[in-house]
């Protein structure tokens, strides 16, 4: 036997030598050109074959990239990209190639698909109309078209993330893996970032997602959804989820109290979860809240908690001035808007005054997602987005009724209700900033690392709805499904 093995080794020595030489040469080249770009290319080259075989692995990989790969790539403009942004179209290409390779091109059906696709097409139409009707007296940079395409890409990549989960999460186990990755990686890093003495060490290893409201709202919604509906959770898992919820609450209501987006978003999430989980208590709680409002106790307390007059003068009222300017310039074409990102050059044309401040050359952001959509795509785009939101809530309500009770192993129920509550909070967050569809000049692609997580989990609602009847409160897991099947 030893002689046989020796002979085999001798026969394969040339091949082994070539492989070893190739590895050493690659290591030498990468060492000479060490950079984030080369590292990204190496990881992409190694990961692409794996994803072609198991494309659904791209979902947890995207979560990790959005949370724990703090690398940026320049584009020659003010726009900088990151691995999570680039991974979305790459995963889409892998998904399409895997379907072609199997000879089976199929897309998960959902009533939400149509408005989302039309929204993207409307964005391109607004871009073309905006270019054709551009006011020649309004200056724009030579690469401004690239900036506009980058803004539309944020819309497109958000939709692609939604469709990726909807189509790649072919069995409940893939939703479990997606959720587990988010809770373990995102939740674990959130705990470390909030731990005294460790936060400063961990922060450089994480992305900007951890300082964005969508991440904390999603973390609270997913954790609380499982706590309220999944009675089959083991005690360690339940304690971990409770810790995540406590950390999110501390971050929003104590550590970052001045950032209203965090605590308003989490409060909206938990309020929606309470409404869904305890139907018998809805009206008693509603009556208590109404009494507090009538007595004039609730709103003054919330106003003071949010910072009172000082915060309103510094942030609230000034945002109304910004919104007014954006709406004013958008009235040039309120039907289809000015085109993606086009309101910035128009709004910067004249000085802006607020109180005792006077900006001769302002850099205008509306800090409101609804106003942004109106400026990008007009009432047409805003109406189409509202249609998409309506379909998502209709889907969420259907899944809520399907998983009405809290079964012994209620992962699906916890997922459906947690994401539905998060979707409701997302619509609230959009009032405070461009959190869900970032404005390329404001929150932009760094913020996309947080918003893309929202879109991933929203797509999971479509996947859950399309799963076989075996995924039900009585039979929670469809383990027969394979990755990408």
How are the elements arranged and paired?
Blueprint: H1 2-32, H2 36-53, H3 58-68, E1 73-74, E2 80-81, H4 83-102, H5 113-132, H6 144-168, H7 172-193, H8 199-202, H9 213-229, H10 235-255, H11 260-277, H12 282-294, H13 298-305, H14 308-330, H15 343-347, E3 352-354, E4 357-359, H16 369-402, H17 411-429, H18 444-466
Antiparallel strand pairs: 1-2, 3-4
Would you mind describing this structure in some detail?
The chain has 485 residues and is mostly helical. It has one domain. The protein is 68% helix and 2% strand. The protein has a two-stranded antiparallel ribbon with strand order 1-2. The protein has a two-stranded antiparallel ribbon with strand order 3-4.
Low-confidence stretches: 1-6, 8-13, 15-20, 22-32, 474-485
Specify Rg, calculated over alpha carbons.
25 Å
How much beta, percentage-wise?
under 5%
Give the distance, in angstroms, between the N- and C-terminal Cα atoms.
Answer: 43 Å
Largest sheet: 2 strands, antiparallel
Helix and strand pattern = HHHEEHHHHHHHHHHHHEEHHH
Structural class: mainly alpha
* Number of helices, counting only DSSP H or I runs of 4 residues or more: 18
Helix residue percentage? 55-70%
Q: How much is the average pLDDT?
A: 86
The total domain count is 1
What shape does the CA trace take?
globular
- Strand tally, please? 4
**Strand order, biggest sheet?**
1-2
Nutshell version of this structure?
The chain has 485 residues and is mainly alpha-helical. The chain has helices at 2-32, 36-53, 58-68, 83-102, 113-132, 144-168, 172-193, 199-202, 213-229, 235-255, 260-277, 282-294, 298-305, 308-330, 343-347, 369-402, 411-429, 444-466, and strands spanning 73-74, 80-81, 352-354, 357-359.
